[in-house]
Amino acid sequence: MRYSPEALIAFVETVSCGSFSAAARRLRKSQSTVSTAIAHLEADLGFSLFDRSSRQPVLTEEGKRVLSYVQAILSASDRLDEVALSLSGETETRLTFVLSDTLHPDVLEELMVQFDRQFPHTEFECLIGEDEDVIDLLQKGRAQVGLIEARNHYPTEMGVTRLPMQTWMGLYVAASHPLAAQKTLQWDQLHTWRELRLNTYLENGASVARGPAWSAPNYLLLLSMSVQGFGWCALPCALVEEFAAEKPLVQLDVPGWPKAISIDLLWNKKSPPGAAGSWLRDHLQQGRIPAD
């Protein structure tokens, strides 16, 4: 390749993040490294990609025209890596799958049954993670594939596919909680009561609690806190049905809830999944949530 892959990635990531510093944080590099890589790319191309006269870099007209070509080059390179790994027939001795509690329990059960039939000699490890934790585990190589509540943007090194399944999220409280006795609630009314929420939201700054809040790293722990009456919480409906049978939770009647959440499957393009990970990805791409 005539142009440095690192420079192409730095360019695309800067466009996605909106600044050199944000791109550097996402790529886990220094800002000077990102800026220098883009400067070298501009020198190779013979024109500027960004207008640097304002506080944040703005794409030039040339940069806008080049962007789609650079994205296509990186995408083709990723596909080549995946095809090469697939053709090599390499099967992982161990596959680590980090999944969200939003995955329907029946889907996970069927996945494990089929995986055992296809790869009986591959060690299969499941980790639970939500949001940024999933991405972090993939970036560090601690997991090979992961599930996450769908979002619009991911780090450049993340491969992503939207799964043909959704999960339903509802708002729940314990039967003993004062909110359980109210027939209809407005969203704003909830914020006078303690919210139970993922602490990954708090860490990445994606959402700030509007009222009192307790937090936990996964939905299963939040469910336990909800059962004990510590507050209201948005939870996967299937998780509540599966694990809150003995002490049922009350689903709150709030406009717009329950709501469907899309799920994305992620992997690290720098170390794409082998035969087992590719099978898992294909299996979930074809899957559907079982009927209740």
Automatic annotation (TrEMBL):
* Sorted UniProt keywords: DNA-binding, Transcription, Transcription regulation
Family annotation (Gene3D superfamilies):
3.40.190.290, Winged helix-like DNA-binding domain superfamily/Winged helix DNA-binding domain
Cross-referenced SUPFAM superfamilies:
Periplasmic binding protein-like II (SSF53850), Winged helix' DNA-binding domain (SSF46785)
A Pfam family per the record: HTH_1
> In what residue span(s) does the HTH lysR-type domain sit?
1-60
A GO molecular function held by the record: transcription cis-regulatory region binding
Query: Which InterPro entries is this protein grouped with?
Result: LysR_HTH_N (IPR000847), LysR_subst-bd (IPR005119), WH-like_DNA-bd_sf (IPR036388), WH_DNA-bd_sf (IPR036390)
For this chain, the family text in UniProt reads: Belongs to the LysR transcriptional regulatory family.
Would you tell me the protein name for this molecule? HTH lysR-type domain-containing protein
